[in-house]
Structure formats: structure tokens, C-alpha cells
């Protein structure tokens, strides 16, 4: 999994691209990213021709957000390339952390 950040010059925002590679999506039919930046509502990721899933969100800078991926509506996964990890307040798992 990977995250790329592109900071905008015209306003305090960052375009963040979330990518779940095909080999980690494990032939999934759907992948979504959920986090504090979208009130834990699913942002459905688009499946690319190579099998990867991706989406780009514009987020405000100077903030930190917890997030996770949801594969096929049932399997939660963290992003190994996240900026950090914190305990989830609703389970024994951890949430990925994104700092922009």
C-alpha cells in the first residue's frame, strides 16, 4: 500500500493519493478508504487496469487523521507506509495515521 502527497501552492491543502496494490487487495471486488477526514464514511477506490485500487482526496494541511482500508466490506487493513499507528478506540486493532 502506498500514500503520496502533493501540497498545493495556492491554498493550505494537500492532494493525497491512496493506493492498494493488486497483490494486497487479494482479488477484491471493492476497496474503500475510511477515516477521520471523511467521518469514517467509505470513499470507494477505483480499480485500475493493473488491478490496483486508488483514490485521491484533498485534505487540509497541518492536521493528523486516522484511517483504514476496508476490503470487500469485511476485511480491515492498515497502510504499512502510514506516518504512524494508534490504538483504535473501537477494537483491539490499530488505525493508520496520516499527517499532512
Automatic annotation (TrEMBL):
One of its GO terms (molecular function) is hydrolase activity. Keywords: Hydrolase. Pfam families: AMPK1_CBM. The keyword Transcription does not apply. The keyword Lipoprotein does not apply. Residues 8-100 form the CBM20 domain. It comes from the Bacteria. This is Glycoside hydrolase. The lineage of its organism: Bacteria, Pseudomonadati, Pseudomonadota, Gammaproteobacteria, Chromatiales.
Amino acid at each position: 500500500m502506498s500514500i503520496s502527497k502533493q501540497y498545493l501552492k495556492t491554498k493550505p491543502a494537500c492532494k493525497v493519493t491512496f493506493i492498494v496494490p493488486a497483490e494486497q487487495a487479494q482479488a477484491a471486488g471493492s476497496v474503500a478508504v475510511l477515516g477521520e477526514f471523511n467521518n469514517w464514511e467509505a470513499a470507494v477506490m477505483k480499480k485500475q487496469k493493473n488491478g490496483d485500487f486508488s483514490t485521491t482526496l484533498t485534505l487540509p494541511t497541518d492536521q493528523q487523521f486516522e484511517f483504514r482500508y476496508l476490503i470487500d466490506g469485511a476485511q480491515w487493513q492498515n497502510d504499512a507506509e502510514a506516518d504512524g499507528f494508534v490504538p483504535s478506540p473501537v477494537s483491539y486493532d490499530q488505525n493508520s495515521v496520516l499527517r499532512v
